[in-house]
Give the backbone structure.
Amino acid sequence: MPRKLADSTLARLRKALVDERHRLAELIEDRRTKLEQARLSQAAADRSPDPASAEAGSMAFEYEKELSIERNAVDLLAQVDYALERMDAGGYGTCERCGADIPVTRLEVLPYTTLCVECAAKR
Ligand SMILES: [Zn+2]
């Protein structure tokens, strides 16, 4: 039996997911722009006579940092999309591993989660 959440609860969680989706999409767009700029300045630094300069090192670090933020956001966005799919297909709010109901209090904090607290802790 798929979990039956109250319509008002589902509506609230769906809004949270849609808002999160929007926020992540903007963040990814923003990071991609920054990454492109970093890549261009990195390419310029590579052509400079002193590629081992501290400045080049810090730019590479910035690039890595932006890249990891972007990747995390892409991962999270995939989870948000997946949660929205489960919401439509049924199965949202049920732990994917053990089948237990995920408490609404947990869904309020992590609307895109697919695991109950116990299974998430075991990962
Ligand atoms: Zn579980």
Notes: Residues 95, 97-98, 100, 115-116, 118-119 surround zinc ion (CB under 6 Å). The mean pLDDT is 89. DSSP finds four helices and no strands in the chain. The CA atoms of residues 36 and 63 lie 9 Å apart.
